[in-house]
Design a protein that fits this description.
The complex is a heterodimer of chains A (531) and B (65). Chain A is of the alpha/beta class and 531 residues long. Chain A has helices at residues 35-46, 71-80, 83-89, 126-142, 192-196, 261-264, 267-278, 324-344, 353-377, 382-397, 485-491, 517-528; strands at 24-31, 51-54, 68-70, 95-100, 103-109, 121-123, 147-150, 154-160, 165-170, 176-185, 202-205, 209-217, 225-229, 238-244, 248-256, 284-292, 295-298, 303-304, 307-309, 315-316, 425-426, 460-464, 475-477, 498-502, 508-512. In chain A, strands 1, 2, 7, 8, 9, 10, 18 and 19 form an eight-stranded mixed β-sheet that branches. In chain A, strands 5-4-13-14-15-12-16 form a seven-stranded mixed β-sheet, sandwiched between helices. In chain A, strands 21-25-24-22-23 form a five-stranded mixed β-sheet, with helices on one face. In chain A, β1, α1 (35-46) and β2 form a beta-alpha-beta unit. With 65 residues, chain B is an all-alpha fold. Chain B starts with 12 loop residues before the first helix and ends with a helix. Classes of the chains: A alpha/beta (531), B mainly alpha (65). Chain A binds chain B through residues 386-387, 389-391, 393-394, 398, 400-401, 404, and chain B through 33-34, 37-38, 40-42, 45.
Amino acid sequence: MTRIFETPLYPYARSRDQDAQATIRHPVIVAGAGPVGLAAAIDLAQQGVPVVVLDENDRVSHGSRAICFSKRTLEIADRLGFGEQLVQKGVRWNLGKVFFGDRKVYEFNLLPEEGHRRPAFINLQQYHLEHDMVSRLRQLQAAGAPIDLRGRNRVTAVVPHPDHVSLTIETPEGPYALEADWLIACDGAGSPVREMLGMGFTGRVFEDNFLIADVTMQADFPTERWFWFDPPFNPGQSALLHKQPDGIWRIDLQLGHGIDRKRETEPERVKARLRQMLGPEVDFELEWVSIYSFQCRRMERFREGRVIFAGDAAHQVSPFGARGANSGFQDTDNLCWKIKLVLDGTAPETLLDSYTAERIQAADENILNSTRSTDFITPKSANSRMFRDAVLDLSAAYPFARPLVNSGRLSLPCTHDDSPINGPDGLADGPSRTRPGSACPDAPLASGDYLLDQLGNGFTLMGLATDAPGISGLRVVDPGGRITPQLRARYLGDESSALYLIRPDQHVAARWSTADDATVEATLARVKAGG
Amino acid sequence: MTDLVLEPNIDRPDDLYADLLEAHEGLDEAASAALNARLILVLANHVGDRELFRAALAAARNAGA
């Protein structure tokens, strides 16, 4: 069987730019065609911004890699036109089991909140996601969108200038030069662009190694997440078992420090470990094996003149809590509408400073959460292990200790409380979860549609029990007739009316109980000006 | 927040102290430390309030040699 990640999906093809007499300048070049780079490209192209994506490879990523995609990512994917494919294919789960030593200490049900179009998250191999994203890109291309994905185009030099960036690109047919008004670097944790600009990437290094394996199994394992602390088959370490589509299971085994990587990835050795874990009676086949270690760190700033960093290139977290790819999607969600306004000349470049401010806040939140999970899963001292084990022992007997068990905290969108582009919160008794800076929570509408499908791409006004003033350039969302209980709970609370100004990335910019045209217009102008 | 009580608050302190010693009797160092850890977590949950817990942590730290 030829695996999806072994087939070139966007093979090298000579571009007209390579034969041009003078160097061609593009409004936006994206370095890297992983999930984050593709999201940036699709978002910009959807808004009519011409974009070129350069990738040193020509196919989707190898192995499952990022496998948990959160609700917020699915909502962003909906806005970008490929959410349905992900949800159709992805595996949903609600039940988790936690094991300590040789016993199950407890199980839990996530009990996701009702009234959202999308589940709390899905499990899906990264290569399926990337495949769906490339299909979406092709669909946009076929409809005439200005988007160009160039395989085996490796960026080898980056020279920043005050109003553009010069790039040198290596291809199978030799190098060529390009220029970009803006370069978005989505080229991963080892970001060559970051290295070429000599920009720092500091934080905490973790020395633990993890073996990850994709395994096909005939066994009737339930669709649950199983997490082991200190199991008999991996003493002193941890293990995770997760179901993916296509009958493939993802297994993560902590290996500890100072291991022999080559030896640990030998198929016979891996299989022996897995047999211990799954039991002798389970038939399985090894699809893919890799070893990873990680760091929790970020760049000091995410923008250097005309070069902007997003995803792992800008920040790296531990895998616990699925905060890598998910936060990368939120980066480009935050960035693309701002670049579009700047390119259109309707916003100053300083609007992009809010990208750095907001996404650094998010990166710090993600690093804090994932570092805490890491400290629980891989205790760094005898004392820290003692408290960890005490929590696990107590969790078997008493519910109170279960919230202290930290095998990864679900990735939720960051609320940008101190963002420079937040407008006023004029809704004193409004729900806290929809205060300015929040990602809009979904809610069902009386029509049977969902709220988030009505929001995004441009600035929107939503009036609840009050008329939204008609303002040029502002789309008005009418929740239609009756206000559903979920919409009321999430957007009105104890207030009798509410008016929300919502950003193109579905975040609340400002809210009032009512507001006149002049107030809304002034707030919108301030948001676009970067605060 | 309730203030952390640092005045005598235990009825029959000798009995309570004896309970504490008795719980540790026969345990080796590691088992004793583990029991203490579980005890701290049980009491911390009862306290609930993070500020009060932090005040207790500070009080314990301050009294150390």
